[in-house]
Automatic annotation (TrEMBL):
Organism: Muntiacus muntjak
Residues covered by the Peptidase A1 domain: 1-303
Keyword annotations from UniProtKB, A to Z: Aspartyl protease, Disulfide bond, Hydrolase, Protease, Signal
A GO biological-process term: proteolysis
Top-level division of the source organism's lineage: Eukaryota
One GO term describing the cellular component: extracellular region
Signal peptide: 1-15
Disulfide-bond pairs as recorded: C91-C96
Family: Belongs to the peptidase A1 family.
A Gene Ontology molecular function term of the record: aspartic-type endopeptidase activity
Subcellular localization: Secreted, Extracellular space
Protein name as annotated: Peptidase A1 domain-containing protein
PROSITE patterns: ASP_PROTEASE, PEPTIDASE_A1
Pfam families assigned: Asp
Length: 306
């Protein structure tokens, strides 16, 4: 698969550049929800349809234009991957045919960096060519910012957290608690702050324990599935980082599938990572907090959203 990889693209026409983003359910999840809700009679097990239920994929998509004149794309600003990339007109893969493709020959501001790139992802590989061009921003409510911080988007002061592993924006977390009782991350653990993940991920055995607190009456054989009538009753799950509590309420970690069917966004997955208890704080966590990724000082800033 060949893609055009674009690095260092933002044209700074002002001190803070804002690129709009919006919450979007992917096509795979639309099909998954339709299959799931169609095949669950009241009181029946989920066994017959569990093969379709992998994970919920909700992403925060930014609409941008690249080049002169502008060519429009939708992208995910992912802190879990180091590159912003879009498919080019030279891509021969069938997957490229479902996306807008960038034509560098149609842009007067495109510059060929004359370097190739090969990247590995959890779901596959890609190869392509490095290039640079101008990126621009229409205005809507939710944004990703480059070049500064707009204080009107959050309450109070930013809590600055040191990054211990810059590659993944990895930090130290003190504990995870509910109702003042520690339920995970005893004696500190590590967490990756990742804008490209759509579930709150932790070690499977630890997450199973949390699920029993959140969802004592699971539907069928899935610890994540629950009745929406029960979905607002769980207490907040509080992540304590650098001595500051960051509560996550059911409003954020309980997702609605249908009028009556909901699910918990916690999922086990990280038991093979090092160190043994590592968490991935995803979009579910970041929806509640304004976040600043300060590459120059190797730190992350968090504050409640306005």
């Amino acid at each position: 698969m060949k893609w055009l990889v674009l690095l260092g693209l933002v044209a700074l026409s002002e001190c803070i550049v804002k690129i709009p983003i919006k919450k979007k359910q992917t096509l795979q999840e639309v099909f998954r929800v339709k299959i799931l809700t169609k095949n669950i009679p009241a009181g029946k097990s989920l066994q017959s349809v569990r093969q379709f239920w992998c994970l919920t994929r909700v992403a925060y998509i930014g609409s941008i234009t690249i080049g002169t004149p502008p060519q429009q794309f939708q992208v995910v600003f992912d802190t879990g991957s180091s590159d912003l990339w879009v498919p080019s007109v030279y891509c021969q893969s069938s997957s490229c045919s479902t996306h807008n493709t960038f034509n560098p020959t149609q842009s007067s501001t495109f510059q060929d960096v004359r370097r190739t790139v090969n990247l590995s992802f959890g779901s596959g590989r890609m190869s392509g060519y490095l290039g640079s061009d101008i990126v621009r921003q229409p205005d809507i409510a939710s944004v990703v910012m480059f070049g500064g911080v707009d204080n009107s988007y959050f309450h109070g002061d930013l809590n600055w957290i040191p990054v211990i592993e810059p590659c993944y924006w990895q930090i130290i977390m003190d504990r995870v608690s509910m109702n003042g009782k520690v339920i995970a991350c005893y004696g500190r653990c590590q967490a990756i702050v990742d804008t490209g993940s759509s579930l709150l991920l932790g070690p499977t055995d630890v997450v199973s324990s949390i699920q029993r607190h959140i969802n004592p009456n699971p539907i069928g054989d899935s610890e994540q599935m629950m009745s929406c009538s029960d979905a607002m009753s769980p207490p907040p799950v509080t992540f304590t980082i650098s001595g500051t509590d960051f509560p996550g309420t059911p409003k954020y970690y309980i997702q609605k599938i249908s009028k009556s069917l909901c699910f918990s966004s916690f999922q086990g997955a990280t038991e093979n990572m090092f160190p043994l208890e590592t968490w991935i704080l995803s979009d579910i966590f970041l929806r509640a907090y304004f976040s600043v990724f300060d590459w120059s000082k190797n730190r992350i800033g968090l504050a409640p959203t306005a």
